[in-house]
Design goal:
The protein is an alpha/beta fold. It has 34 helices and 19 strands. Helix content is 61%, strand content 9%. The strands form 5 sheets. The protein has a 6-stranded mixed β-sheet, sandwiched between helices. The chain starts with a strand and ends with a strand.
Length: 1069
């Protein structure tokens, strides 16, 4: 026997020649009846399909041969060999296998995936914890965010099988929803049930005496849940919102039914689709409602016409009565005049009595005529009423006839459809009769030919006496026969040529099909090789992520996993492979396996060198790959070559001028990290360069790059900031200030110190990135808890790193102010709290922060006298949507500050968004002081706000207010004070929080808090600040230091959390 196995037939169904392919298999089966050799040949088709899917061409014999073999999930005894592999990862592998099957239902792929997750988890499952840990793995790595975690694709394949056919998708979803909600549904072997089973989502099991459909396993039940069903149904139905509301009302809310164009569009969409019962019920109810409304409108129209007829009838009757009354009045007048004339005539002359009697009689006659006319008018009125009644009857009869005619028209349409069908049948019969007529005509012509031949023979017998005539006749007949045969031969030749031409066309078509098939096969081979390479690289990167996780390098492991997942989103294969290879090299470097890191980064750069697209995506990936190469060279000790490669990577990103939103989404997500890594790599190479002649030039270059990076970060990486080639020196700004540039690199902390009148200084401390972030996090978290011992310990450790190496130079320079140019996470640390073991840093120097020195103007701009806009809320507002603690100290704070500075005050009800906008656009204020609670949400800055009396002012609206006042040609605000909680907090994505956004609006300085400070402490601190700042020739940073020292000594607040959280960002002068 010969058995041919064909796997993934559901993929074969997507090919253009699939009908020919399966027809060939059927032809081999049919050959068994002709040639017994074919009995040796059998085909096994593996995949998800029904026989009806294999051959869809209606002109071919369907694929109705063979028999189906259903496959079932693993049983416990079938997976016992897997227990050996799990023995080193679990105390009781048998129980672990039971829990795995409880989640997968024995589904082979999911069972294998859960086993692999256990092996890669990095821990041993203790006895008694099997159910809890297996559930945690299944939910975190398969169910949670399943579309991103589905690699290789399995759950997406099931989803696509259900949604592939739009005409059946809604019905399949409704059927699956019944199974999901009821737990099981009795099977009726319908076509749709078969399709749902083929998707793999449900399985048929015998329950009692009847087979029933159930969800295959718990993982499918959790992933494809009610929320997913409703979401997909909503995407399928164009009327999903109205449908859900109608179903939720128990199918009673008629206001949700469709009407007019919406109903027509829905019916057009539903045509030809296998809709669920509820969809059909909804559309039928909508159509019924429309018909009822049409009938109601028709009845209203009929009632309107009836009212018009009655009104017209009454009008005719009234008019007739009026005319009759007029005629009676005329007759009375005539009668009166006649009687009066008779009396006068009797008085004047008796001899005219006869004439008067005559006139009386005439008057009586006219009165009788008037009465008769009145009766005639009444008769006409009655006749009009009769006509109206008759018209009403005719109207009713007409309406009845219209209704009957409509029914007849409907019946006529049905009859017309039947007649058209009969007409098509008759036309077919006529065609058949015509063909029979042609056939009989040809037979008649043949008989006529034979009759002519017989007659010709008779003529020949009769005319034998005339030899010449006979010969002439024969010759004529011979010529005619030759011509006839010649015509037949010519006709056959033409037909043969046509057949040959058609055959040639079929041959050419077959050649094209073969060529196309070969091209598709070649393309499929290429795609297969690419897919294998992609899976290989993704698998390697995932394995390296697991090794990083086992070595407790959690951030690096998460990054590697994220890059592996993002690679599936990229469309460009070559760029995708280049990025994967670059990330593989990074993972090897993080594992300190530098020899293995060389090959993938070389392959990545080779792929990029062969790519000629030169797109924005290409530029970003090339910069990342060069940066990875530079890091590897630096680790291998090749410092000059590392600097050269890092410079190329930096130049690529520095010249990047495309819109970030045009990048591939998978690259957009990493763009911020790539820019930071490339800049940090370039900075590290510049500082590693040991050539004496270039040290100062390199330090200056590092300073320029750092400020460019921090300003780029301030703009959320939407635009790469240009380097300031004429970078301002601190001598030009403040001769008594020093600038400190702390730079966090992966393996060390670098510091550039800029002192007035001196070259740049540089010192470095070896400390891992993770250890430094741990130190900063501990210090940051200790401040709100007011844990003095922890704060002092962490603050002293940070002092040793940042300030200790520069103590001598700072002392010699006699500077009074330290300005820190830093981004997160150092930007979130209150530098005033750094501790040398005896003193806080603020006891030695005034402290300020700034994102870049180049944003300052050389000369200070503070003008005296000061003028302030002060706004605040001390009471709970009725417009608050959430809880809000009252700030009774705000009223006292505003009262005392306004007594020191000429001010416009907006307190409580007067502090609205409109009032704040009007004040800002009406007057120039050098100070804007906001004493109100605020909230800065790091995960979503669009949810950040400050609170006014009439509600929240979102951060984007606050920035717009500051932008608007610039259009009124006011000078920039000198000082913005945010006297509330967490207003200056930033994170890795949103530097400086609200303060950063205010700086982008050209506010010169910001005074805010890094952590929550009590209402009373804030009031006391702000009063001390303004008392000092209102004095002449006192800078903002001096006023801040005065308030901090006062709090440190006078308020009995030795703990830095009371005073160090107040920071000054921007121009400190």
């Amino acid at each position: 026997p010969i058995v041919i196995f064909i796997d993934e037939i559901d993929s074969v169904l997507q090919l253009s020649f699939k009908d020919d392919f399966f027809a060939l298999i059927r032809a081999c089966y049919n050959q068994r009846a002709v040639n017994k050799v074919y009995n040796r040949l059998s085909f096994v088709l593996l995949g998800v399909a029904t026989p009806g899917d294999l051959i869809e061409d209606k002109d071919r014999t369907p694929f109705n041969i063979g028999r189906g073999v259903e496959l079932y999930g693993f049983q416990l005894h079938e997976v016992e060999p897997l227990a050996k592999g799990l023995s080193e990862y679990a105390s009781n592998p048998q129980i672990v296998l039971q829990e795995i099957l409880a989640w997968t239902g024995g589904q082979s792929f999911l069972t294998q995936k859960l086993c692999k997750l256990i092996c890669n988890a990095g821990f041993t499952i203790p006895a008694g914890a099997e159910a809890q840990l297996i559930e945690k793995l299944a939910r975190s790595h398969i169910i949670s965010n399943w579309e991103a975690a589905d690699e290789p694709e399995h759950l997406k394949t099931i989803r696509d099988r259900i949604l592939a056919n739009e005409q059946r998708a809604a019905y399949l979803l409704e059927l699956y929803q019944q199974v999901w909600q009821q737990g099981e549904v009795v099977a009726n072997n319908s076509f749709e049930e078969g399709k749902l089973q083929l998707s793999g989502l449900v399985v048929k099991q015998r329950v009692g005496s009847s087979p029933a459909l159930k969800v295959y396993n718990r993982i499918y039940y959790e992933v494809f849940n009610q929320e997913w069903i409703e979401q997909e149904l909503a995407l399928l139905r164009p009327y999903s919102e109205a449908f859900r509301a109608w179903v939720a009302s128990g199918c009673e809310d008629e206001s949700r039914l469709l009407r007019g164009k919406t109903l027509r569009n829905a019916q057009a969409w539903a045509k030809g689709k296998n809709l669920s019962y509820q969809d059909q019920q909804f559309l039928a109810a909508s159509e019924k409602k429309v018909i009822e409304e049409q009938i109601r409108d028709a009845e209203l129209e009929r009632e309107r016409k009836d009212r018009e007829a009655i009104e017209k009838r009454n009008w005719v009757l009234t008019e007739a009565n009026q005319k009759a009354q007029q005629r009676i009045q005329i007759g009375g007048v005539v009668l009166f005049v006649a009687v009066l004339g008779a009396v006068v005539s009797g008085v004047l002359a008796g001899n005219k009595v006869l004439e008067a009697n005559s006139q009386v009689q005439e008057a009586n006659t006219k009165a009788d005529e008037a009465n008769s006319k009145f009766q005639e008018a009444n008769s006409k009125v009655q006749a009009a009423n009769t006509k109206i009644e008759r018209a009403n009857n005719e109207l009713s009869q007409t309406q009845q006839k219209v209704f009957e005619e409509q029914k007849k028209a409907q019946q006529a349409q049905k009859d017309l459809a039947l007649v058209q069908g009969e007409r098509e049948n008759i036309e077919q019969r006529v065609q058949n009769l015509e063909q029979q007529h042609i056939n009989k005509s040809e037979a008649l012509n043949l008989a006529n030919s034979e009759l002519v031949a017989l007659e010709q023979q008779q003529k020949q017998i009769k005319i034998k006496t005339t030899v010449a005539e006979d010969r002439e006749l024969k010759a004529t007949q011979a010529i005619q026969q030759i011509n006839h045969k010649l015509a037949l031969s010519t006709e056959k030749l033409d037909k043969a040529q046509q057949n040959a031409q058609a055959a040639n066309q079929r041959v050419e078509l077959a050649k094209k099909r073969v060529q196309q098939a070969n091209q598709e096969v070649d393309s499929a081979k290429i795609e297969l090789e690419q897919a294998k390479q992609e899976v290989q690289n993704v698998s390697l990167l995932s394995e390296l992520a697991g090794e990083l996780h086992r070595e407790n390098k959690i951030p690096e492991a998460e990054r590697a996993r994220q890059q592996a997942a993002l690679s599936f989103e990229m469309q460009d294969y070559e760029l995708k492979q280049a990025m994967l290879l670059s990330n593989i090299s990074i993972a090897y470097q993080q594992l300190e396996r530098f020899d293995e890191a060389t090959k993938p980064i070389s392959e990545s750069l080779n792929k990029l060198a062969a790519d000629t697209k030169n797109s924005p995506d290409y530029s970003v990936i090339l910069a990342q790959a060069l940066n990875t190469k530079g890091r590897l060279l630096a680790e291998q000790g090749d410092t000059p070559e590392a600097l050269s490669v890092h410079t190329k990577a930096f130049d690529i990103l520095y010249s990047f001028d495309s819109d970030v939103t045009t990048l591939d989404p998978s690259i957009q997500i990493s763009f911020r990290e790539i820019v930071e890594n490339v800049y940090q790599g370039f900075i590290g190479s510049l500082l590693d360069s040991k050539e004496t002649d270039y040290n100062q030039q390199n330090f200056i270059k590092v300073r320029q790059v750092v400020e460019s990076l921090y300003l780029t970060e301030l703009n959320n990486f939407y635009k790469i900031e240009r380097l300031d080639t004429n970078l301002v020196r601190i001598d030009q700004i403040d001769s008594q200030a020093a600038v400190i540039y702390p730079i966090i690199l992966p393996d060390r902390l670098e510091v550039i110190l800029h002192l007035p009148g001196q070259p740049l200084h540089h010192y470095s401390t070896i400390i891992s990135n993770n250890k430094l972030h741990h130190l900063l996090g501990n210090l940051r978290n200790s401040l709100p808890r007011r844990d003095t011992s922890s704060i002092l310990q962490e603050a002293e450790s940070l002092y040793e790193l940042l300030i200790k190496p520069a103590e001598a130079e700072l002392a010699k320079s006699r500077v009074k102010t330290l300005v820190f140019v830093s981004n997160s996470p150092l930007g979130n640390i209150p530098m005033a709290a750094l501790y040398d073991g005896e003193q806080f840093l603020v006891e030695k120097y005034a402290i300020a922060s700034i994102p870049a020195l180049q944003i300052l103007e050389p000369q200070p701009q503070v003008q005296r006298p000061l003028r302030a806009l002060i706004a605040g809320i001390s009471e709970e507002s009725p417009h608050n949507e959430d809880s809000f603690r009252e700030l009774p100290g705000v009223a006292l704070e505003i009262e005392q500050i306004s007594s020191m500075i000429p001010s416009s005050v907006l307190l409580n009800q007067s502090f609205t968004r409109t009032a704040l906008e009007n004040e800002l656009n009406s007057f120039y204020f050098s100070i804007v002081h906001l004493a109100t609670c605020g909230c800065f949400v790091c995960s979503n800055p669009n949810d950040s706000f400050i609170r006014a009396w009439d509600g929240k002012i979102k951060i984007k609206d606050f920035e717009q207010l500051l932008h608007q006042r610039r259009h009124y040609k006011f000078k920039p605000i000198e000082l913005l004070v945010l006297s509330s909680s967490d207003t200056a907090e930033g994170n890795k994505q949103i530097p400086f929080g609200l303060a950063g956004l205010a700086l982008k609006s050209k506010v010169r300085s910001i005074l805010g808090t890094l952590t929550d400070v009590s209402d009373q402490d804030t009031t006391e601190f702000m009063v001390q600040f303004y008392q000092k700042f209102t004095q002449s020739n006192v800078t903002k940073v001096e006023a801040l230091r005065h308030a901090q020292l006062t709090a440190l000594t006078s308020f009995n607040h030795q703990n830095p959390s009371y005073w160090a959280s107040f920071i000054l960002i921007g121009d400190w002068r």
